[in-house]
């Protein structure tokens, strides 16, 4: 009896996402830390070469790529609204 | 040729256009159809971050230090990743408390302290002074470039300074027009925000235009540009980190102060927090604003390299490459557009910054002082406020001009701006710790802010004065009194850093150290604790400001309160405020009634929107008789809050326990119902089973009793049936007894060491009569060695007998064959009883071991067993830790198989291990 109960509840608990806000916060902090690491010593010194790629100095290419990457990931993380119970709060009309 | 008057007309024309946009924005706001209430306008208005520094200075910085211009934009990008968490919290707090500026925010957090508000204001004004000077320098330099292009050689430094003064005055007028047109100074400046968003678009377009022009028209694309740069001038050092003074440490420091500057520069706070319409806009701005930054920086390096290729080193100020490049190739229209873009960038900054600073100056410095000195007894405070703010704007711009006069020529644009960034960074610890750590105290904040500010001033501001000659140069090098350990650029002989990094390191060390240290060793006052809790837990609190009410202990009349409000914010708005309060509360607001605590708190909050939290507090307490701040009230609130929290914790706990108990009960109930159903079934089946033999016994006995003339032979036959039925009855009762005994656990198992082969032999002997009667052939095979198990012999015999008799019963008489096969394998004894009977359907194979499940032969209809035999077998075998099941076999009959583990310590060959 106990086994079947576990079998029923466990997948449901795992499948249901933890409410958006909390996960989103963790993801954003993760992104911040990743950004700080990617855009500082010592990783920066690894790319501190002068050999150009497509005529553009590699360091610049690296910095701008990481930059656009951070922006993209941020946009993804912040993309959709957290699921709010419909009755809870009416959306503010803009 | 660009005539002077053309340049001037275009400049004023553009400023008028900005003003028109602002006017339109205000009109729309008044009509209730805000144009700034969308995330895109919000994002563009945040881009007020990009000033003359970005527009002109970045190129100069890139020409000198390569990648050194980038951290100032990477920092805000990194900071924006957590805007959703941090900025949103600050916005929520500011809206709840009617915050008007960053000084107001910090003061509010630390117990509405007027001292803190004043200190933050002083730091802001002194700290931003260089930044405003930067804008004046950028605009006047760009004017000079255009003018000089026109009349080569004209214009010296004197002319330049005059230009800057005129510009400062014109900007002051415009800022006053933008920021303080209304008497109701508390509203957000919608028009200003609209104009700022507009100028952000203009500056981006202008800078991109010149970037694209240089890269693709003057040169043949980026690759060509970089190639030519590499051929013509020594640019290799610009492509690496090596040209950045201070190296990686400076990179980190610049990133850090830019991260704080994007939030805590007074104008950024104004735009991001005070002017924010809807905190949901942060979601879009978080990624769109960094994208704006990226776009405006894309062409910085190409323009810098283009400039280096075109102009001899040192012949043209690299800060002005953006303008001199189009002029060099005689693209006057483009140059004019670029000039407008630069004007946009600089004026935008100046307008927002001065409005923000003058609000702070008025609310957090002048008002508290005037209130303290009891100099404010005027009737129309609104007008005075406005005068003070306008005066503030003028004062701030003149201060900026003064700083520009002092250091103007000796610094590059970015170096001036970084001094201001380092000042803004001083606010970060007090705010960030303030909104996440309740322990941060007023004394700690005071110590941290002043300590950090003093270190900043000593290490960055004073040296810049030294360059202007106000202070002897020897103050900087080697240091005051010739002591190098006191040198502002190398305190305690710390020479590892460049001046900015050096200053950031020491000021942050002192700032954070004092804030945390003093907070840990000082006690908070009541109001401080309340504010701290409210700031940290803003998301948990339901109604804002509800806790404030009971802090007002004294009493005042409604008419007094009304009078104060009218003096401060004008009679109409005061009336409106009272009406809006009355609408939400069931009280009658006659002039002679006593104002209750919640009304006073409400009005204090309204007032805070105009004069700041600290001033509002002082003002309201000035008209209240008795003690303003009631300790009892505070204790009551704290006590109540903790009680409520405690209570709700306990409730939660209880409800969790209840839930668990309910689940347990439910399960038990299900089980009980099942048992009850089984019991009913059992009883009814037993009764049914008992009735069948009883009926025949009774019937035959009655015949015997009634019919005395019956022939002995027939009588004999009837008696045999009666005996047989009685036997069946006995068997059934025995089985029921056995079964209930075993099931209920009351049966005493007699376990001993025994050979399973002997069990089989006994069972065979017991069933030999039956098999002979039905003429069934029984064969068996068994291993030579004994199969030793530890079990209850009688019960095991019962199992084998049961299986055997079942097999015999269901086989066809005469042709039936039953084979017994005993084996031992892998520690398990196994007995198979194989017959060639009708076999059992696969679907039935599980069921036949259940109680009262009777195997029905389709042809005979009447069941032959009691339905308990196999159930008993199963119980017995399972009690011996074995398994029993049924399978099909090669004779198309069924095989009943059980296994039980052999006795521990024995092997399959019967020997002890």
Could you walk me through the main structural features you see in this protein, from its secondary elements to its overall organization?
The complex is a heterodimer of chains A (94) and B (913). Chain A is mostly helical and 94 residues long. Chain A has a domain at 20-77. In chain A, 61% of the residues lie in helices and 4% in strands. Chain A contains four helices and two strands. Chain A has helices at 2-15, 20-38, 43-46, 58-77, and strands at 52-53, 56-57. The longest helix of chain A has 20 residues, at 58-77. The model of chain A is unreliable at 1-18 and 83-94 (pLDDT under 50). Chain B is mainly alpha-helical. Chain B folds into five domains: 4-414, Sodium/glucose cotransporter; 426-541, no CATH class; 543-629, no CATH class; 634-743, Helix Hairpins, CATH 1.10.287.130; 749-901, 2-Layer Sandwich (Heat Shock Protein 90), CATH 3.30.565. In chain B, 66% of the residues lie in helices and 5% in strands. Chain B is built from 31 helices and nine strands. A five-stranded mixed β-sheet of chain B has the order 4-6-7-9-8. A two-stranded antiparallel sheet of chain B has the order 1-2. In chain B, a hairpin with a 5-residue loop joins strand 8 and strand 9. The model of chain B is unreliable at 152-160, 542-547 and 858-862 (pLDDT under 50).
Biggest β-sheet description of chain B = 5 strands, mixed
CATH architecture of the largest domain in chain B: Up-down Bundle
Q: Which sequence of strands runs across the widest sheet of chain B?
A: 4-6-7-9-8
Q: Class by helix and strand content of chain B?
A: mainly alpha
Output the CATH homologous superfamily of the largest domain in chain B.
Sodium/glucose cotransporter
Beta-strand content estimate of chain A: under 5%
Number of strand elements of chain A: 2
Radius of gyration of chain B: 48 Å
Q: Which spans of chain A of ≥5 residues are poorly predicted at pLDDT below 50? A: 1-18, 83-94
């Amino acid at each position: 009896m106990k086994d079947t109960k576990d079998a029923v509840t466990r997948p449901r608990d795992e499948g249901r996402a933890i409410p958006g806000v909390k996960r989103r916060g963790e993801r954003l902090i993760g992104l911040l830390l990743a950004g700080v690491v990617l855009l500082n010593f010592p990783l920066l010194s690894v790319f501190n070469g002068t050999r150009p790629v497509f005529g553009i100095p590699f360091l610049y290419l690296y910095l701008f790529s990481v930059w656009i990457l951070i922006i993209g990931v941020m946009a993804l993380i912040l993309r959709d609204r957290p699921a709010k119970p419909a009755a809870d709060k009416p959306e503010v009309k803009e | 040729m660009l005539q002077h008057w053309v340049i001037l007309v275009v400049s004023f024309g553009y400023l008028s256009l900005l003003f028109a946009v602002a006017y339109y924005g205000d009109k729309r706001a008044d009509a209730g159809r805000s144009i700034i209430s969308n995330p895109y306008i919000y994002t563009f208005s945040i881009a007020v971050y990009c000033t003359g520094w970005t527009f002109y200075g970045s190129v100069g910085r890139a020409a000198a230090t390569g990648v050194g211009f980038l951290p100032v934009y990477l920092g805000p990008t990194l900071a924006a990743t957590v805007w959703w968490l941090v900025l949103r919290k600050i916005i929520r707090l500011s809206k709840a408390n009617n915050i008007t500026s960053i000084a107001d925010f910090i003061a509010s957090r630390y117990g509405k302290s007027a001292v803190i508000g004043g200190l933050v204001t002083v730091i802001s004004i002194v700290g931003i002074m260089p930044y405003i000077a930067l804008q004046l320098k950028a605009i006047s330099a760009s004017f000079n470039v255009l003018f000089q292009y026109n009349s080569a050689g004209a214009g010296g430094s004197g002319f330049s300074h005059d230009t800057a003064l005129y510009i400062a005055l014109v900007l002051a007028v415009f800022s006053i027009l933008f920021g303080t047109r209304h008497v109701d100074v508390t509203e957000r400046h919608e028009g200003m925000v609209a104009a700022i968003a507009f100028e952000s678009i203009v500056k981006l377009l202008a800078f991109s235009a010149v970037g694209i022009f240089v890269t693709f028209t003057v040169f043949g694309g980026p690759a060509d540009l970089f190639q030519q740069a590499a051929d013509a001038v020594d640019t290799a050092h610009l492509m690496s980190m090596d040209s950045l003074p201070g190296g990686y440490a400076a990179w980190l420091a610049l990133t850090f102060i830019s991260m704080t500057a994007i939030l805590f520069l007074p104008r950024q706070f104004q735009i991001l927090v005070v002017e924010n319409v809807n905190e949901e806009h942060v979601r879009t701005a978080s990624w769109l604003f960094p994208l704006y930054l990226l776009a405006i920086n894309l062409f910085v390096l190409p323009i810098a390299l283009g400039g280096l290729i075109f102009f001899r080193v040192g012949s043209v100020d690299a800060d002005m490459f953006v303008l001199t490049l189009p002029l060099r190739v005689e693209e006057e229209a483009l140059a004019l557009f670029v000039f407008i873009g630069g004007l946009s960038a600089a004026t935008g900054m100046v307008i927002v910054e001065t409005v923000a600073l003058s609000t702070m100056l008025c609310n957090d410095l002048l008002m508290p002082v005037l209130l303290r000195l009891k100099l404010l007894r005027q009737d129309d405070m609104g007008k005075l406020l406005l005068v003070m703010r306008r005066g503030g704007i003028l004062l701030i711009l003149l201060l900026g001009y003064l700083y520009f006069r002092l250091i103007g020529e000796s610094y590059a644009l970015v170096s001036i701006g970084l001094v201001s960034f380092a000042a803004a960074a001083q606010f970060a610890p007090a705010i960030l710790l303030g909104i996440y750590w309740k322990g941060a105290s007023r004394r700690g904040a005071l110590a941290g802010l002043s300590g950090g500010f003093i270190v900043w001033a000593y290490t960055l501001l004073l040296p810049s004065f030294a360059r202007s000659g106000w202070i002897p140069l020897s103050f900087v090098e080697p240091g005051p009194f010739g002591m190098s350990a006191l040198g502002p650029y190398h305190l305690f002989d710390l020479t590892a850093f460049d001046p900015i990094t050096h200053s950031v390191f020491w000021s942050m060390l002192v700032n954070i150290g004092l804030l945390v240290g003093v907070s840990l060793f000082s006690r908070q006052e009541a109001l401080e604790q309340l504010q701290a809790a409210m700031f940290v837990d803003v998301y948990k609190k339901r109604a804002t400001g509800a806790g404030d009410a009971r802090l007002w202990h004294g009493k005042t009349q409604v008419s007094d309160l009304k009078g104060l409000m009218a003096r401060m914010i004008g009679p109409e708005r005061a009336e409106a405020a009272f009406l809006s309060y009355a609408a939400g509360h069931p009280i009658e607001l006659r002039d002679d009634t006593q104002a209750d605590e919640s009304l006073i708190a409400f009005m204090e909050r309204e007032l805070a929107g105009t004069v700041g939290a600290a001033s509002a507090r002082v003002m309201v307490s000035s008209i209240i008789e008795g003690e303003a701040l009631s300790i009892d009230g505070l204790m009551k609130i704290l006590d109540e809050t903790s009680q409520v929290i405690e209570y709700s914790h306990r409730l939660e706990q209880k409800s969790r326990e209840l839930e668990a108990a309910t689940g347990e009960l439910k399960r038990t109930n299900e089980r009980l119902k099942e048992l009850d159903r089984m019991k009913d079934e059992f009883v009814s089946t037993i009764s049914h089973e008992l009735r069948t033999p009883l009926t025949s016994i009774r019937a035959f006995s009655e015949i015997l009793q009634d019919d005395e003339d019956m022939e002995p032979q027939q009588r004999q036959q009837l008696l045999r049936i009666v005996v047989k039925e009685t036997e069946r009855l006995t068997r059934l009762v025995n089985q029921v007894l056995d079964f209930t005994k075993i099931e209920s656990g009351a049966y005493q198992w007699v376990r001993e060491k025994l050979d399973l082969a002997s069990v089989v032999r006994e069972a065979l002997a017991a069933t030999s009569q039956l098999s002979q009667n039905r003429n069934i052939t029984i064969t068996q095979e068994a291993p030579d060695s004994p199969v030793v198990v530890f079990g209850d012999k009688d019960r095991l015999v019962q199992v084998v007998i049961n299986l055997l008799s079942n097999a015999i019963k269901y086989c066809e008489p005469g042709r039936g064959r039953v084979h017994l096969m005993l084996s031992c394998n892998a520690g398990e004894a196994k007995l198979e009883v194989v017959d060639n009977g009708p076999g059992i359907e696969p679907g039935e194979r599980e069921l036949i071991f259940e109680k009262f499940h009777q195997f029905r032969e389709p042809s005979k209809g009447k069941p032959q067993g009691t339905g308990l035999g196999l159930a008993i077998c199963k119980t017995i075998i399972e009690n011996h830790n074995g398994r029993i099941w049924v399978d099909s076999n090669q004779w198309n009959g069924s095989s009943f198989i059980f296994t039980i583990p052999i006795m521990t310590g024995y092997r399959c060959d019967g020997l002890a291990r």
